[in-house]
Structures are given as C-alpha cells and as structure tokens.
Amino acid sequence: MPMSLLILVAAIQGLTEFLPVSSSGHLVLIPIVTNFAYQGRAIDVAAHVGTLIAVAVYLRAEIIAILCALLRRSHGDKHNARLGIMLVMATFPVMFAGYIVNYANWRWLDMVHTLAIANLVFAAILWGADKMPVIQHDLKAIGWRHALVIGAAQICALVPGASRSGVTMSAARFLGLDRVTAARFSLLLSLPTIAGAGLLKTIDLVNSGDAGLGSDGVIVAVLSALLAWLAIRWMMGWLAVASFKIFVYYRLALGGLLLLALIQGWIAPSIT
Question: Which of 87, 130, 152, 193 is the most exposed place for a label (fewest CB within 10 A)?
C-alpha cells in the first residue's frame, strides 16, 4: 500500500477522531476526492487502535482511578465508581444500534448527500448547544440523566458526518455541562465505544480471513496515536479559552462544499 495513503489515513483519523468534525466522514472521502482506492478494513482497524491508544494515554490517570474504584481497590471513591457506571450506561445504546447498523444494508448511509447534510445539521446543533448556559463544571455532576441522554445522542454518530465527538459534546452542553467537562466526558466515552466498534470490525476481518495487519497497520496505528494525542491536547487547550465556533464554521463549509460538488457533478453521489 502506498506510504502516502497510509500517512493520509493516519492523519485524518488521528487529527479528527476526537474533534467534533467526524473522522469517518473524512475517511470515506479519500477514494472520492483522490486517486486512492479504499484503504481496507484492516487499515481502518489499525487507525482506530492508534486513536484508542492516544486517548488511553491522555486519560490514563482517570482510567486507572475509575478501574480501581470499580474493582473496589480504592475504598470510598464513590465518585469514580459512579462515573464508571455512567460510562457503561452511556455506551449501551450505541453498542446495540451499532450492531444492527453494522449488518444492515441501508443505502442512504452510503450517499454523499447524507454526509453533506449531516455536517450541516449537526453543525447547527453544535452551535445551538454551545449557546446554552453553563450549569455544571465537574465530571462529578454526571448522573443517570446525563448518561442516558448522551448515550442516546451517540447513536446519531452512526450516520456518516454526524461526528461521535460532536453529538456527545452537543448533548452534554444542552444538559448544562461546560465545554471542557463535555469534551472530557466525550473522551472517556470514546474508550468503550471505539473498542466495541473495533471489536466488531475485527470479528468481520477474522471471518473474512483478512485479519493480518502487517507493517502497514503498525505504521498507521503509530501515526494515528501520535496525531490523535496532539489533537486532544490542542482541543482541550482550545476549549478552555474558546468556543465550538471554529468547528461549526468548518463543518458548515465542508457540508456546503460537498453539496456544491454533487450539484456540479464533480464527485460521485455514492461513498462506496
């Protein structure tokens, strides 16, 4: 596989996975706007493994605290134990829906129109959510209502262009969480979600007899991990002092450009 394609896939996945701009919505554009063919599911899995490593490293202190609390090794740490339970609760809806979508054959999910419209619609939702007043500033405020609402919203991320990070942060902001807390909960929630999606893809690869990754997979995983870690650090620093506007403007521009390209016949209407 060309090194330039591996770098492109790793860069897109790493830089966009945790930003509210949809990594999958960018990855599917590679064969549409370049001369490269689809990189294959094995490379997709490698890219997701890389981003999973990145967020695990970034949140290592929180992850260890949550696991210790859940395993009763940190007595009296009710906050982290409760947060761990909330993360599990918020993950169930998308796991169930993702299993169905993974084996469904819904053609509208493979259309560039869907990708374009999703960018426009969820950009508007992110903009509206960011206008909401801040009520809570701490992950300790995450409760059953937050977990259920954010978990249900995460199902929307199964639509190309919706953005898992975008919908979870939007839901959290609508519930009154501040930007940094919303982003942090979204990052924590990405761990079981990405791991679950990766497991489904890995099972498909094993069943199809194409489970080997080789050196190409290692390159993509390492680059994705490094770039994702840098993107997370930048995003958290940005949200501490600024709003989601930059992401809203970008997604509106991307959605509008895709619709224009479709109308002008510059790109094919199907993702696959």
Answer: 152
